[in-house]
Amino acid sequence: MSQAGLVKKLIPQTNEFERMPVPEAHLKGSKSFLGMFLGEHTAGTEFVIGPLFVAHGVGAVDLILGLVIGNLLAVLSWGLVTAPIATAKRMTLYYQLERITGKNLVRWYNLVNALMFCFLAGSMIAVSATAVGIPFDLKMPSLNDWLPQTFGWVITVFLMGAVITFVAIQGYNQVSKFANIMSPWMILVFLAAGIVGLSQLGVTSFESLGTIAQEIIWNGIPLPGMSRFSIWHIIFFAWFCNMAMHIGMSDLTILRYAKNWTSGFTVFAGLFLGHFIAWIASGILYASFLQANSGSQEFAPGQIAYQTLGIAGAVCVIIAGWTTANPTIYRAGLALQGIFPKVPTWKITSIVGIITSLAACFPALVMKLLDFVAIYGLLLMPMGAVIFADFYLAKKIGFRAEACLANKTNFNFPAFLSWVVTLVFCLGLNQIYGVEIFFLGLPGWFLAVLIFITLSKIYYPIKNPSST
Amino acid sequence: MKNVLKIGSYLGLILTIIPPLLFFYGKLDLKTMNLWLGIGMILWMITAPFWINAAKEAE
User: Fold this and answer.
1) ipTM of the complex as predicted
2) Which stretches of chain A sit within 8 Å of chain B by CB?
3) Which among A182, A161, A110, A154 has a CA at the least distance from the CA of A325?
4) Which pTM was predicted?
5) What are chain A's domains?
6) Segment A347-382, tens digit of pLDDT
């Protein structure tokens, strides 16, 4: 077979409808999204976030109540904000943004977005590598490691990055298939981790479960050097850890394939299994690890899972990281496609895979995951607010929707100012008033909407409403 | 054939959740539980890919 023929066979010519609405023949039912969301939200990060709640000394009741409220708010954000716009427009986030803000601004947005996705996918690969390295006796990273410690770590990360990128190159269908296959087994492994961890901590009955949960696992006392988390931290973290996806509108790209806007609510299953049961289970697992290895600074999810669940636990960590890295690399590829529309998707995704693998070499991405997730959401959120305001408020307030498409211009000043001023405002709240990063998303979103509609009314007023 | 694959997959899931429960109630030791978890994992991996996505595409 010729080299060109081999490339064509290995890398199918995917049509992902980057610059047109998804045709009706390609729409998918709710079950397709159920599998996708289940895979995406039962991820490698869950093996890090659950333990961090333990380390931050949250109380048991605060954790349970906070997760219920926060996850419900996140489901409502997906179902009522993101999905209706996605199914009405059926465009990728990037093309929708281009129609509103113009090519010049969206290029910068796409670049920031693609980089953030690369770093996020990189952290997933790093988490998976903590499991892949076990049979090779790889030196695992500890809480204070920022730089790669061994050559073996770098090799492991690059090999994993290559395989994951190859699957992502196959497009949305391959990603969806992979998530569908792995989700049911992975969720049961998380459940198993919780059950075994509880047993190792000495739980023997329902009564002792309450006592050990409150006195040993989530005892309200943070580990040395960690701040204490309240119920408000849990609510806002659970709500905004995927801020870029829901009110930041990244999931327009995925949900544009939905037959009906109600498919947005299928995220409920993913969140309550992944961001509730999996966070609780991984917290129990970490508490059990701390009890068995008192004073250990090692923070390697693969090793922690392997100690309790054996090979199945280690494989679960690999798969969990993989099923999140895949759609994240796919999204990063689409972001760069917005900057280089003539370059084929597979080439773009390959470049993304290389950047992601480079990022994954640095354990800092795992150790500072909570901060990174919050910053990543904040950076992208104002553009989601712009899309929201353009879709719902343009007609009511009286400014031109999709202004750059209508005026054939390449730059939208109201959107630019909305983005920059919101970020400066959030930075000010954080630096001057000490507002923690988890709480900045909500005021920031309202400010972004306010700035955009006020300036759009000035810059793009509708003189004759019937012309819309 | 598809039904045999499905039974294999469900058995894999059962072997992923029952051994931890038996460990919790003190009926299995950690090493044996880990072995059953591994068998369950392999059963799932070698059977599920052949019917899960086929079922989705048929919908």
Assistant:
1) 0.94
2) 29, 31-32, 35, 177, 180-181, 184-185, 188-189, 191-192, 195-196, 198-199, 203, 309-313, 315
3) A161
4) 0.87
5) 26-374 (1.10.4160.10)
6) 888 888 888 889 889 888 888 888 888 899 999 999
